[in-house]
Design goal:
Length: 124
Amino acid sequence: MTILRNKWMILMVNVLIVTLLFTIVAPAYDLFHYINSLFYIAYFYLFVGILLWVIRGGFFDAITYSFRRFYNRVSKQKDYLDDWQKKPLPSETIEKSWLSFFMFNGGMLMLGLLALLAVYYYLL
């Protein structure tokens, strides 16, 4: 777990994954296809980070609470040991460390992507 705490090491692993993806999948070895490979990885991290940010912000809490309450009312098999009001909401289950992990890696990969795009269009 200590390797996950070093965000720069994980960033280097992600760059290695991008390079490996580029060498395996790319039809031609040029800057254009490397930028495409970097795009896939960077925006995966950003998508997951933004999704975690929305969940942590409490967007789905009211919906989850309403479904739990509705299920408790209409359920034919009552479970009296299940206290649906004390179950954690989705915003309480997302840790801030995971949110910052995905946002940092996605943001840094995106900055690299933008830098490579600037180099690509400058050379073009």
